[in-house]
TrEMBL record:
GO terms for cellular component: ATP-binding cassette (ABC) transporter complex. This is Phosphate/phosphite/phosphonate ABC transporter, periplasmic binding protein. It comes from the Bacteria. InterPro entries: PhnD (IPR005770), Solute-binding_3/MltF_N (IPR001638). Residues 33-266 form the Solute-binding protein family 3/N-terminal domain. CDD domains: PBP2_PhnD_like (cd01071). Keywords: Signal. One of its GO terms (biological process) is transmembrane transport. Belongs to the phosphate/phosphite/phosphonate binding protein family.
Amino acid sequence: MKKIFLAIFSVVLLFSLIGCSQKSSTKEEKILKLGVVPSSNSEKLVDDLEPFAKALGEKLGMKVEVFTASSYIGVIEGIGSGSVDFGLVPPFSAVLSNKQSNTKNILVGTSRTGKPGYYAEIFVRKDSNIKSLADLKGKKVAFVDPSSASGYIYAGAMLKDAGIDLEKDIKYQFSGGHDKSMQLLLNKDVDAIASYENLIKKYIKEFPTLNEDIHPISKSELIPGVTVVASNNLDEGMRNKIKQALLEVQKDKEALKIITDLYNIIGFEEPDENSYKAIEKISEKMNIDLNKVK
């Protein structure tokens, strides 16, 4: 009787272990995390990108989840630590993560103009008396984030080139998003904002009179485009797989429209690493130590 009991117990234990093993294997299903910087309402941004992530996941054969943080640095740190596998990030963020975490730039976004990049612009209200950058002395300016290329780095360098001391000649703040900067300008809480060239086109549906309310007074040199950065924790095979999946998914019109609407890019191409050297030079002009930005 004891032997029969032991035999039954062994069989039950075996099936129990098999069941646990199957559950464990399901739990360990690979999920890739795609990081994006907070360009607008974080929850809405994640929701907006969900169909793109799903299409990308179908090409990869694994689930892709979208992640964002309250700041650009939060996303960069996630990619650097490996808790985020790859990201769609602005070029300055790409350079930071390259320097600090040895991440790899695998693709760069192509803008609507067909160029692998975009421009920063300084916007003011049309009803103001501000006609040039020199007129901003003594004024209030909204930047986006200390790690935003168009929303701070390149725009700040433009102001410096115009003879404006950022610490003495203007009062500035960081808004946390391009849309938030725009609203500060419309509400007359600031006199000027730094953003990207397609700001008006991006928000004209939500603010129909935007084209009559604000306009740019200065434009930067070309900035490298939105960059796909892969964590150093990913092996070369997975980086190449993500790269090929992105090149494939850009052929999907619905998926492409999502990133065109969000990031003003019409696809991806191979990055030119030399173009990122310009960001390092601009950073020097802005007294930014790329190894110490946190």
